[in-house]
Design goal:
mainly alpha; elongated
């Protein structure tokens, strides 16, 4: 007799196993949504900038995250190229 997990065998899983699998899938979806939203808002921009400085400009001082965002917003105010307002 074949004991592989077929569709009929999977439906015989205990309810707790199905619940854990569903909860895991929901958690993965939520994490993916948070990652997407964070990347749209620029949440990883500072980390990428620091990596760029270390790789391409090792002699330059690395600004704090606060300084980075101040400079970025000041530059956006000086050059409002891609904004609606």
């Amino acid at each position: 007799m074949n004991t592989s997990a077929t569709g009929a065998d999977r439906s015989a899983r205990p309810a707790g196993t199905r619940l854990r699998a569903t909860a895991r899938a929901c958690g993965d979806g939520v994490r993916a949504g948070i990652w997407w939203f964070n990347s749209i808002l620029g949440g990883q921009d500072y980390q990428r900038y620091v990596q760029h400085l270390r790789r391409r400009h090792p002699e330059c001082p690395i600004p704090t995250e606060r300084e980075y965002w101040r400079q970025r917003h000041a530059e956006a105010d000086r050059n409002p190229a891609n904004r609606c307002c």
